[in-house]
Amino acid sequence: MDDRVLTSVLERFLREDVGSGDVTSDFTPNQEVDAIIKSHNSGYVSGIRELELLFRNHGVNVRSHVRDGGRIRRRQKIMTLKGRSRDILTTERTALNVLSRMSGVTTLTRQYVESLKKSGSKAKVVATRKTTPGMRYFEKTAVVLGGGLPHRMGLYDMILIKDNHLRLFGNDVKAALAAARKSRGKAKVEVEVSSLRDAVTAAENGADIIMLDNMTPRNIRKVVARLKKNGLRGKVVIEASGGVSLRNIRHYGRAGVDWISVGRLTHSVPSIDFSLDVLRL
């Protein structure tokens, strides 16, 4: 997203908060002030670019002390601000909300990525569409800054034939893939399966990506072995999905998949706490 479009989205977030006006800052003395944003947790930060755009769009001078994706410690200075007090105070909560949410996603993603690396696997941690409405771009960006992959951004950039789609084809993977090929254009086609038989059928019938849904690492290894035996492994990307946690992700990595999708990266992530403090009048 370019700066102009991103700034417009951030301003929409701010308008949600400001509404008809900031009735507290409106009567507060409007002075030139210095302020800092600091962290209250350790982790990895993201949202720096977003905050720079938002504050600068309101005439606030910004100096960032960390880069997006960088590691931060507790009580670390993240950003220094200089501007009119009303501009800073009105923008404060929207800015911190974006920073906290994105940094939480980046931190959790990095934890999954590091856990997977320790297993020796070359698989990639991948996000899902289980995102906060209105925040998908920000959360997917935060995943990438944590070392993960975004997967598809929406319904428009990849065909993903899931269980409910398959039911409408009578659970016929071959028929669903045939229909997808006719309408796909340039879009890649992924199909969700839960059995070895359907995985082989998907690979034989042109799927680009096969999602192994809620399969154990043991059963995933059987799928990988069968695809290798049939000369199909190199033709598809294999994604493990469902039931993945920090405690077991290494087992999925060792099963031989390419991608491991983790919904909790965005649907139940703890935020990183930040605060903004006015320093000098």
Notes on the structure:
The model has no long low-confidence stretch (mean pLDDT 95). This protein is elongated. It folds into 2 domains: 3-112 and 270-280, Quinolinate phosphoribosyl transferase, N-terminal domain (Aldehyde Oxidoreductase, domain 3, Alpha-Beta Complex), CATH 3.90.1170.20; 113-267, Alpha-Beta Barrel (TIM Barrel), CATH 3.20.20. The strands form 3 sheets. It has a 6-stranded parallel beta sheet. Strands 3-5-1-12 form a 4-stranded antiparallel beta sheet, with helices on one face. A two-stranded antiparallel ribbon has the order 2-4. Helix 1 (3-18) packs across helix 3. Helix 7 (196-204) links the parallel strand 8 and strand 9 (209-213). The chain has 281 residues and is of the alpha/beta class. 42% of the residues lie in helices and 20% in strands.
Quick structural gist:
The chain is α/β, with parallel strands linked by helices and 281 residues long. Helix content is 42%, strand content 20%.
Order of helices and strands: HEEHEEEHEHEHHEHEHEHEHE
Segments where pLDDT lies below 50 for 5+ residues?
A: none
Under CATH, the homologous superfamily of the largest domain reads Aldolase class I
> What fold name stands as the CATH topology of the largest domain?
TIM Barrel
Strand content: 15-25%
Question: Structural class of the secondary structure composition?
Answer: alpha/beta
Question: How far is the N terminus from the C terminus?
Answer: 36 Å
Count, helices: 10
Q: Write down the Rg.
A: 23 Å
